[in-house]
Amino acid sequence: MAVKDPTAPHGLKLTIEDYPFANDGLLIWDAIKKWVTDYVTYYYLDANLVQSDNELQAWWIEIRTVGHADKKDESWWPVLETPEYLIGILTNMIWVASGHHAAVNFGQYDFAGYFPNRPTIARTNMPTEDPNDSENEEFLKRPEGFLLKCFPSQVQATLVMAILDVLSFHSQDEEYLGQTIQPYWKEDKYINAIFE
């Protein structure tokens, strides 16, 4: 988690300072933001160009009203009226689909493949601070048995493990940020230069 801070090196201050994984993520965030800033400011020199681009505006309306129909009336949506807002929107979208997605997905199986680390279902209630007499007796006699009754069944755990394995899997035709330039970008010397 980070909050905006113009005095911080990347314009964001981490809420947990000593978190190397997040610090590395900020480097990726910064690279994405620099690329998006250079790209957007090349095509949209001022707010009028953003506001008058009907296709861009229709794209943003569709994202808010169709893609997130359940949240379409929220007041926190940015209004797409300046290059700065477009830069923020695109940076967030690219980050979520790349760095953030990789951070939350690719490591899932390593942690949650062992289901006691992150059980997906509880088949019984966990003991409370004031269990009834029979629960208390059962728990004190054999606490591991009490816990095992709560955990998912083998079938339930195996199904979730298989899903997590798929979510954590890297595709053989996976593309990485900055790996391959789009052919139409290559033709434009400025865009090719900022891509490089």
Count of the separate structural domains: 2
- Helix fraction, binned, reads 55-70%
* Number of E strands: 2
What class, by secondary structure content?
Answer: mainly alpha
In whole angstroms, the N-to-C terminal distance is 30 Å
Average pLDDT across residues? 89
Oligomer: single chain
Which strand-content bin applies to the residues?
under 5%
Low-confidence stretches: none
Element pattern in H and E: EEHHHHHHHHHH
Main sheet specs: 2 strands, antiparallel
> Judging from the principal axes of the Cα atoms, what is the shape?
elongated
* Number of helical stretches of at least 4 residues: 10
Strand order of the largest sheet: 1-2
Radius of gyration: 24 Å
SSE layout and pairing:
Blueprint: E1 2-4, E2 12-14, H1 20-43, H2 47-51, H3 54-67, H4 83-105, H5 108-112, H6 133-141, H7 143-150, H8 154-168, H9 183-186, H10 189-195
Structure description:
It contains ten helices and two strands, in the order E-E-H-H-H-H-H-H-H-H-H-H. It is mainly α and 196 residues long. Strands 1-2 form a two-stranded antiparallel sheet. The chain is elongated, with a radius of gyration of 24 Å.
What would you say about this model in short?
By secondary structure, the chain is mainly α. It is 58% helix and 3% strand. The chain folds into two domains: 1-106 and 181-196, no CATH class; 108-169, no CATH class.
